[in-house]
Amino acid sequence: MTSKELLYVEDALGHEKYFRTQCCETISRLQDEQLKTFVQQLEQSHSTIFQSLYGLL
Question: Which pTM was predicted?
Fold first, then answer.
């Protein structure tokens, strides 16, 4: 992996971590169960993407 590719992966990991954090914070504030379930699914998707990107290192 080139240094430029490594920087891209590191940047993408940071973004996915941010999205997961935002989802978790949002889940804790939501009252609507349907919306809460949707955001939990989003958080799981970002978690999966994070793990895939981390696996590239």
Answer: 0.86
Which of 5, 20, 7 lies closest to 50 in space, CA to CA?
Answer: 20
Lookup result for tokens 């699914």: 41
Q: Which residues contact 31 (CB under 8 A, 6 or more apart)?
A: none
DSSP for 13-57?
A: HHHHHHHHHHHHHHHHH---HHHHHHHHHHHHHHHHHHHHHHTT-
Asked if pLDDT for residue 52 goes beyond 90, the answer is yes
Question: Pick from 25, 14, 23, 30: which is nearest to 44 by CA?
Answer: 23
**Residue 6 · residue 47 · CB < 8 Å:** no
CA distance 19 to 55: 18
